[in-house]
Write a structure and sequence with these properties.
The complex is a heterotetramer of chains A (148), B (293), C (666) and D (177). With 148 residues, chain A is of the alpha/beta class. Chain A contains five helices and four strands, in the order βαβαβαβαα. Chain A has a single domain, classed as Rossmann fold (3-Layer(aba) Sandwich), CATH 3.40.50. In chain A, α3 links the parallel β3 and β4. Chain A is globular. Chain B folds into two domains: 118 residues, Glutathione S-transferase Yfyf (Class Pi), Chain A, domain 2; 160 residues, Rossmann fold, CATH 3.40.50.11810. In chain B, α2 packs across α14, α4 crosses α5 and α11 packs across α13. The longest helix of chain B is centred in the first third of the chain and has 17 residues. In chain B, 60% of the residues are buried. In chain D, α1 crosses α7 and α8 crosses α11. Classes of the chains: A alpha/beta (148), B alpha/beta (293), C alpha/beta (666), D mainly alpha (177). Chains B and D meet through α3, α4, α11 and α13 of B and α6, α7, α8, α9 and α11 of D.
Chain lengths: 148, 293, 666, 177
C-alpha cells in the first residue's frame, strides 16, 4: 500500500499537568503540527495501564504516544517514575503481542515545552507514516467476524 | 617503552640542539624514541593562516604515517607541531565530514588514535623516579623561570594541560632535577612566535618583557619547551641589546638541556654552546668533573 | 442519559479553522445526545444561559462543551451546569481551540478532529458519575525555611496576620547576607541599622517559633496538611540557661584556627562563637571541627567560665516534627567564590585574575565587610595583604555572570548596583583615591538606580571603562590590570592596589537537595522554579509551597522583601478558609475484589492507602483490604494502574471511561 | 547567496554573532598595540556586514594565533580560529594585504613545504628576502646561525614529495611563489 497519502491514526495518552498543558502552550503560541493525533488526558502517566495501549492498537490505532512530566518534576512526586519502570517491562509484552515497539513512543514534555511537543508529535507521525498502517489486529478482528 | 618521534623542521635546523639534547637524555634514561619515517612539515602557522584545509591535511598526512608505523604515542617536542597535530586530530575526530575530506586529500584512512604528546608529558611518562635516579649534578644555584608559551597549554579544552593560566607541570620536572623555580607572571604570555622574521620588532619587544619579568622575579635562567620560543627569547637578545642599551643577557635552555646538565653532560654534548646567549656555570662544570674522576 | 453538546466559536478563534455548525450537527447524531448547538461565545453570559436553558428544556443530565482548553474555562462551564441543577462533574470539555483550531490550518481536517474530540467527550461523560468536591481541613501554620531578609519578612507578615510561624535557619543566627552588608543602594542607609530591629522582632514575636542552627529533614503530606521533620543541630549550649554574656568566647583558647564566616575569612573567630555581635539569638554554638575538647577532651574552658552552667558537651542533634499548612522557601543565595585555597573551592577558573592567589583580589562580600563599620577593619579601607590604604581600586563586574565558559550564562542583576555603591563608599572615605569600574553593560533598572550610578560617575568621579579585564598580575606590590576600553578602542592598563571582583550570585549548593526533599522543581542552576513566570511568580508547582527571595533567582533586597510579602499573602489566602476544596478525583477500592496484596501502598507517593480489616459479625478477621484516605489521596492513579486485580479505581478516570474514549476513536 | 559570515561559520563551525563584544580578547591580546583595530572590532565588522573593512584590516594578519583570546573568551568563541578564517577568505577574494611582509613570509614558508616537504631555512630566508627585498635585516642573527650550522644549505627532500604537492593542489593553495 502506498504510504504517501496514508494518514495514520495516533492516540496519545498524556498527563494533565505537563504534556496536556504543553500542548495548550503549543496552541497559544500558534505552532502547527500534524492533525493525526487524538489526545486522551489522564491525571498522570502513572495512571496509564499498559492495557490502554494494547486496547488502542486493537481499536485500530497505527501508533501510540505516551507523554508526561520530566523525571523529577512529576506533579505527583513519583508517578512518572512508576510509569517509566512499567514501560521497561512493557516493551517485552508488546513484542510478545506482535506489536512493533517503534509504533509506541514515550517522551517527556513539560508544561513549558510547546515547541518540543510539536517536534515530538511531528517526529512520531512521520515515523509511523513511514512504517505504514498497522493491519495485524484489524485482520484478526475480521477473522473473528467471519468465524463468528 | 617505544615512543614515536616527530622532530619537526626546526629540530633539523634552528633547534638542532633541542634534538641533540633530547636524544642524549633519552638514551641515558634508556627510553627509546623512534623517528617517524618520511615525516613532513606540520604546516605550522603559515598553513593555518592561509588555509584551514591545508593545515589539517599537512598534519593529517603525518598522523596517517604515525598510524602506519603503529605508534601508540608520538612525541612532538616542538610546541607548534604538537599543537597543530593535536588540533588537526581533534577536528578530524569530531567531524566525519572534515575527516572524509582530509582522508580524500591525503588519500589514506586516518584513525586518529595515536596519542600526540608534548615534551613535558614525555618526561612525566618516564617518571620522576627514573629521572632522579640519573641525577649527578647539583643545579640548586639555578633559579629557573619555566616558560610554557602559548601552544603547549592552549586551547585548554584540547590540550587539557594542567592549568590554562597557572600551569605547574614543568616546574615539577625542573624541581625533580634539582633546580629551583621562580613564581612569575608571564609563563603563558605570547612571545610573538611566527612574527619572528617578518615583524621582528614585535617579537623583540614581547620577548624582552618576558625576560625582564623572569628577571625581576629572581630567575637566572629561562627554561623553554618550544624551538620558536627559544629562537625568540635567545636569538633575539642580540637585537634587544641594540634596542635596549642596558639589556643584560639571560640564558635560555631547552628542558632536555637542563635535564642533561643535571645528568652530568656538558654544554658541548648538549649543544648549549650553539645558543646565542652563552651559558656557563663553572661550579657545575667542576662538580661534573669531580664525579667523572 | 440525556446529553447536550455546545460548540463555541470563540469569536473567530475556533470558527476560523473549524466548521462549528458542522461539528454541532455531527454531534447531534451521537447516541444519547438530545441537543446540540453552536454559539459565538459560549463562555459569555448569553452563552452560559443557552446551556442553562437547554438543561432545563431538555432535562439534560450530561453536558459537553467544545471550547478552549479545560484549563481555561472548565470551572466556568461546570458552575453554569451546577447552577442549572446538574452535578458539575457531569460536564466535560472538548479542547477545540488550543488542540485544534490554533494548531491546524486545513479546515476539513480540523473539523474532522474536532468532531472526534467531541465524540471522546460524549463517550466519557456518559460514564461520569455525580461527584462532590472533597473538603480537607487546613492547618493554619506556616513553615518558613531560611532566616535571611526574605524569610524574616515572610515570617513577620504571616505572624502579624495572627497565624503561627515556624522559622528554620541553618546558621546559628538569622540575618543572612543582608546582615553582612555595609550600606545599601540606592539610599546608602546602614544595612544592619534597618535589619537588626526586624531580627529582634522575629525573636520576640509570640507567634513565631524560631529554630536556628536547624535544617529541614523531610516533608510529608500536601497543601494544607504538611508534616515537617526538622533537625535541630546540637549547639552544646543550653539556649534557656545562656545569658549571652560572651565570657566563654573571650576565654576560648582557640583564637586563630577558624576563619569567621561572617567576615568572609578576613578575620578569625573562637571555637565557641556567635557569628556576629548582633546575632539573633545571641546564643553561641561550638564548632566541633576546631574545638580542643572535641579533639582530645583536654580543654573545657568555656564550661568552667560559664556561671550559668549552660554548656553541655554531650548535647545531641534532635529531630522535631511540626504540622503546617503552608511552606515558604527562602533559602537565599551564595556568592560565587574561590576560597583562599583554590584546590578546595568548588568552582575553578579566573586564574587569569589571580583570584584565590592574590590576597588583595577580593570579592564583593569581602569588600562589604571591609567597608562595614562592624567589620575587621572597622570600616577603614585597608587591603588584606599589608593593611595599607588602597589608593587605586579596580572593580570588575560580571565575574562568573554572563560567562558560560567559566561561570553561568545568566546576569546576576545586583552587581551593577553594588559595584557603583562600593566605588562610591570608597570615594567618600578615601578622597584622593581612584576608583575604576570595568563593565560590559550597566543594568540599573529600578527606582532611583540609574540616578545612583550617574551620581557615582558624575559627582564621585568613578571612572567607568567598558570592557572585560583579561588579566591581573602582581608587579612590585601593584596589581597590573589589563583591559580594553571598547568604546575608545584603546588598550588600558591600570596599576591598582586592590581589585574587587563582582562575582556572580549562585544558588545555594544544597538547594537541589532541599528541592527534592520538599518536592518542588528547580532549574539547571539550582534555582527554584515558579508555576507561571508571569502570573504565578511566587508559587511552586506543589500546592501550598511558596517561594521568596534569591532562592528563586538573583534579586536585590527590595525585590526579596516584596516577593516575601507576596508569598506570605499566598499562605494567608490559603488560611482564609477552614476547609480546602479538592477535586474528587481520588482512588476508590472495591473491597470485594481487593486481594490485599497492597502493591498500591508501595507505589503511593502520599501514604494515602491504609490497611483495613474486614470482619464478620462475630468480629473475626476475614481479610485485610486496601483503604484510600480521601484526605491524602491526590488522584494520580498510579495505584489504579498497578493493581493486579483492578480493584482500585480512580474516580473520573476509570478504566471503563478510558476504554470508552479509546473505542470512540474513528 | 552565501555571505562572508556564512563562510566563516562554515570554516570555523561557530557563529560570529556568538560574540557579545566584551573586549576581553583585545584586553589580553599580546599584539594589540600593533594592530590598527582591536580584535573584537573585526568581529564587530563581520556582525555588521562591513566585510571589506574586516578583510582589509592589518589586524587579521598581525594575530599571532597565540589562542589567549580563545582560552579566556566568556562566550567560548574561538577568536583565533575566526581570525584564520577571515585571513583565508581575504586571500581567496584577493584582498590587498596590508601586512605584505607577513604574507610573503607565509608564502615563502609554504613554498618550502610544497617543494621539499619540509622547511629549509636557507631557501626560506632566500625566498623571503627576495620577496620583500629587505636583504639586510637579521644581519645580527643569520650569520651566527649559519656558522653554527643551524641553517641548512641544502634542502632535505622527503620521499612523499608528490603527496605533498597533491595536498597543495587539492586544497587549492597553488600560488605559493
Amino acid at each position: 500500500m502506498d504510504n504517501n497519502n496514508f494518514e495514520p491514526k495516533i492516540i496519545a495518552f498524556v498527563c494533565n499537568w505537563c504534556t496536556y498543558t504543553g500542548a495548550d502552550l503549543a496552541g497559544t503560541s500558534r505552532l502547527k503540527y500534524q492533525p493525526n493525533i487524538r489526545m486522551i488526558k489522564l491525571p498522570c502517566t502513572g495512571r496509564i495501564d499498559p492495557v490502554f495501549i494494547i486496547k488502542a492498537f486493537e481499536k485500530g490505532a497505527d501508533g501510540v504516544l505516551v507523554s508526561g512530566c520530566h523525571p523529577g518534576d512529576c506533579h505527583y512526586n513519583a508517578g512518572n517514575f512508576h510509569a517509566r519502570r512499567r514501560w521497561i517491562m512493557f516493551h517485552k509484552l508488546l513484542d510478545y503481542l506482535g506489536i512493533d515497539d517503534n509504533r509506541l513512543h514515550f517522551s517527556w514534555v513539560s508544561a513549558s515545552e510547546g515547541k518540543k511537543f510539536v517536534d515530538v508529535v511531528d517526529g512520531f507521525v512521520n515515523k509511523v507514516k513511514a512504517k505504514g498502517p498497522f493491519i495485524r489486529y484489524a485482520e484478526i478482528n475480521k477473522e473473528f467476524v467471519i468465524n463468528g | 617503552m617505544q615512543i614515536g618521534y616527530y622532530p619537526g623542521c626546526s629540530q633539523t635546523g634552528t633547534a638542532k640542539e633541542y634534538d641533540k639534547s633530547l636524544r642524549l637524555v633519552m638514551n641515558k634514561l634508556s627510553a627509546g624514541i623512534l623517528e617517524l619515517n618520511d615525516w613532513s612539515c606540520c604546516g605550522a602557522t603559515s598553513a593555518h593562516v592561509t588555509s584551514h584545509r591545508l593545515s589539517l591535511a599537512l598534519s593529517g598526512r603525518n598522523l596517517a604515517l604515525a598510524e602506519k608505523q603503529g605508534f601508540k604515542e608520538m612525541l612532538a617536542p616542538c610546541a607548534a607541531c604538537y599543537n597543530r597535530l593535536l588540533i588537526s586530530q581533534h577536528e578530524l575526530n569530531n567531524s566525519p565530514k572534515v575527516k572524509a575530506d582530509i582522508e580524500e586529500i591525503v588519500d589514506c584512512k586516518i584513525k586518529g588514535d595515536t596519542e600526540i604528546i608534548n615534551i613535558i608529558q614525555l618526561f612525566q611518562k618516564i617518571g620522576k623516579e627514573k629521572i632522579s635516579e640519573n641525577i649527578k649534578n647539583d643545579l640548586s644555584i639555578l633559579k629557573a623561570a619555566c616558560y610554557y608559551g602559548c601552544l603547549l597549554v592552549r586551547p585548554h579544552d584540547i590540550t587539557h594541560f594542567d592549568d590554562a593560566e597557572e600551569p605547574v607541570s614543568m616546574e615539577e620536572l625542573v624541581k625533580t632535577v634539582g633546580a629551583e623555580t621562580v613564581n612569575w607572571n608571564f609563563k603563558t604570555e605570547c612571545c610573538g612566535a611566527a612574527h619572528s622574521v617578518a615583524r621582528k620588532e614585535i617579537v623583540v619587544n614581547l620577548s624582552k618583557k618576558i625576560i625582564e619579568d623572569a628577571r625581576t622575579h629572581g630567575a637566572n635562567v629561562i627554561i623553554v619547551a618550544c624551538p620558536m620560543c627559544h629562537t625568540n627569547l635567545d636569538m633575539r637578545q642580540r637585537a634587544m641589546k641594540r634596542e635596549y642599551k642596558d639589556h643584560s643577557e639571560m640564558p635560555v635552555l631547552y628542558l632536555p638541556e637542563l635535564i642533561g646538565l643535571a645528568m652530568g653532560f656538558d654544554n658541548k654534548q648538549l649543544g648549549i654552546d650553539l645558543h646565542t646567549v652563552k651559558f656557563k656555570f663553572p661550579e657545575l662544570v667542576k662538580k661534573s668533573e669531580e664525579i667523572t674522576v | 442519559m440525556k446529553i447536550g453538546v455546545f460548540i463555541c466559536h470563540c469569536g473567530e478563534n475556533i470558527g476560523r479553522t473549524v466548521d462549528c455548525a458542522r461539528v454541532a450537527k455531527a454531534a447531534a447524531f451521537f447516541t444519547n445526545v438530545v441537543y446540540s448547538v453552536d454559539n459565538k461565545y459560549m463562555c459569555s453570559d448569553p452563552g452560559q444561559n443557552i446551556i442553562k436553558q437547554a438543561v432545563k428544556d431538555y432535562k439534560l443530565d450530561g453536558v459537553v462543551v467544545g471550547s478552549c482548553s479545560p484549563h481555561m474555562h472548565e470551572k466556568t462551564f461546570r458552575k453554569a451546569v451546577s447552577d442549572a441543577g446538574v452535578n458539575p462533574f457531569l460536564c466535560e470539555i472538548a479542547n477545540l481551540r488550543e488542540h485544534v483550531s490554533w494548531v491546524h490550518e486545513d479546515k476539513e481536517v480540523a473539523t474532522g478532529k474536532a468532531i472526534d474530540l467531541v465524540r471522546f467527550a460524549v463517550e466519557k461523560v456518559k460514564r461520569n458519575s455525580p461527584l462532590t468536591t472533597i473538603k480537607v481541613p487546613v492547618t493554619k501554620r506556616t513553615l518558613v525555611i531560611g532566616g535571611g531578609i526574605s524569610g524574616i519578612q515572610a515570617a513577620l507578615d504571616v505572624a502579624n496576620a495572627g497565624y503561627e510561624v515556624v522559622l528554620v535557619e541553618k546558621e546559628p543566627s538569622i540575618g543572612g547576607h543582608m546582615s553582612q552588608l555595609s550600606e545599601t543602594f540606592p539610599t546608602l542607609d546602614c544595612s544592619q541599622c534597618i535589619l537588626t530591629p526586624r531580627m529582634v522582632e522575629v525573636y520576640q514575636h509570640p507567634k513565631i517559633k524560631l529554630m536556628t542552627y536547624a535544617e529541614v529533614e523531610s516533608v510529608e503530606g500536601f497543601i494544607g496538611n504538611f508534616k515537617v521533620t526538622i533537625k535541630q543541630k546540637a549547639r552544646y549550649v543550653d539556649a534557656d540557661k545562656c545569658s549571652g554574656c560572651g565570657t566563654c568566647m573571650q576565654k576560648c583558647p582557640i583564637k586563630k584556627k577558624a576563619f569567621s564566616e561572617f567576615d568572609e575569612k578576613l578575620a578569625f573567630r573562637s571555637a565557641i562563637y556567635v557569628p556576629f555581635p548582633q546575632a539573633v539569638p545571641n546564643i553561641p554554638v561550638i564548632d566541633t571541627s576546631v574545638c580542643t575538647y572535641f579533639k582530645n577532651g583536654k580543654c573545657s574552658m568555656c564550661q568552667k567560665v560559664c556561671d550559668r552552667e549552660a554548656i553541655f558537651f554531650d548535647q545531641k542533634d534532635e529531630l522535631i516534627t511540626e504540622d503546617v499548612g503552608a511552606i515558604i522557601v527562602a533559602t537565599g543565595y551564595k556568592l560565587y567564590t574561590i576560597d583562599k585555597k583554590p584546590e578546595e573551592s568548588e568552582i575553578k577558573g579566573y586564574g587569569e585574575y589571580g583570584y584565590g592567589k592574590y590576597k588583595d583580589v577580593i570579592d564583593g562580600l569581602q569588600f562589604e565587610r571591609i567597608a562595614s563599620a562592624s567589620g575587621p577593619t572597622s570600616g577603614e579601607f585597608k587591603r588584606p595583604s599589608d593593611g595599607k590604604e588602597p589608593k587605586k581600586i579596580v572593580f570588575i563586574q560580571c565575574v562568573g555572570s554572563r560567562d558560560e565558559s567559566k561561570g553561568f550564562s545568566y546576569c546576576s542583576k545586583i552587581c551593577c548596583m553594588y559595584t557603583a555603591k562600593h566605588a562610591m563608599l570608597y570615594k567618600h572615605k578615601v578622597h584622593d583615591g581612584e576608583a575604576y569600574v570595568f563593565y560590559m553593560d550597566i543594568r540599573a533598572g529600578g527606582k532611583m538606580y540609574e540616578e545612583f550610578v550617574r551620581r557615582a560617575i558624575e559627582e564621585d568621579g568613578v571612572k567607568y571603562i567598558r570592557g572585560r579585564v583579561s588579566r591581573i598580575y602582581e608587579q612590585n606590590g601593584k596589581y597590573i590590570v589589563k583591559g580594553e576600553d571598547t568604546l575608545a578602542g584603546v588598550p588600558v592598563e591600570i596599576d591598582a592596589d586592590m581589585v574587587v571582583l563582582a562575582t556572580a550570585m549562585v544558588a545555594q549548593p544544597e538547594a537541589s537537595k532541599l528541592a527534592q526533599t520538599i518536592g518542588i522543581p528547580y532549574d539547571k542552576y539550582g534555582y527554584f522554579v515558579e508555576v507561571h513566570p508571569k502570573l504565578r511568580p511566587v508559587e511552586s508547582s506543589s500546592g501550598g509551597i511558596f517561594l521568596a527571595g534569591a532562592c528563586h533567582s538573583p534579586r536585590d533586597i527590595p525585590e526579596c522583601v516584596s516577593m516575601a510579602s507576596a508569598a506570605a499573602a499566598k499562605a494567608m489566602v490559603l488560611f482564609g478558609s477552614d476547609m480546602l476544596e479538592r477535586e474528587p478525583t481520588v482512588a476508590k477500592v472495591n473491597e470485594l475484589l481487593c486481594a490485599g496484596c497492597f502493591y498500591c501502598r508501595k507505589v503511593c507517593a502520599y501514604n494515602a492507602i491504609e490497611i483495613k480489616d474486614i470482619r464478620d459479625r462475630s468480629g473475626n478477621l476475614i481479610k485485610q483490604v486496601a483503604y484510600v484516605n480521601d484526605g491524602l489521596c491526590q488522584g494520580c492513579g498510579t495505584c489504579n494502574a498497578t493493581c493486579p486485580s483492578k480493584s482500585v479505581e480512580l474516580i473520573g478516570y476509570t478504566d471503563e471511561q478510558i476504554f470508552a474514549e479509546i473505542s470512540a476513536l474513528y | 547567496m552565501q555571505t562572508i559570515e556564512d563562510e566563516i561559520a562554515e570554516i570555523t563551525g561557530q557563529n560570529p554573532s556568538k560574540c557579545y563584544q566584551c573586549g576581553k580578547c583585545s584586553a589580553g591580546c599580546p599584539i594589540r598595540e600593533y594592530m590598527e583595530q582591536a580584535p573584537n572590532v573585526i568581529v564587530r565588522y563581520i556582525q555588521l556586514g562591513l566585510f571589506d573593512k574586516a578583510l582589509a584590516s592589518s589586524t587579521i594578519w598581525l594575530c599571532a594565533g597565540c589562542l589567549t583570546c580563545s582560552t579566556r573568551c566568556p562566550q567560548n568563541f574561538d577568536l583565533a580560529k575566526f581570525m584564520d578564517s577571515v585571513r583565508e577568505i581575504a586571500l581567496r577574494n584577493g584582498v590587498k594585504v596590508k601586512e605584505r611582509a607577513l604574507l610573503k613570509f607565509h608564502k615563502a614558508f609554504l613554498s618550502q613545504i610544497k617543494n621539499h616537504g619540509r622547511t629549509y631555512e636557507l631557501g626560506l630566508v632566500r625566498d623571503y628576502k627576495l620577496a620583500t627585498g629587505d636583504l639586510f635585516s637579521d644581519v645580527d642573527a643569520a650569520p651566527d646561525m649559519f656558522l653554527k650550522g643551524k641553517i641548512g644549505i641544502f634542502p632535505h627532500n622527503i620521499k612523499g614529495k608528490d603527496s605533498i604537492k597533491r595536498i597543495f593542489e587539492k586544497t587549492g593553495v597553488k600560488k605559493c611563489k
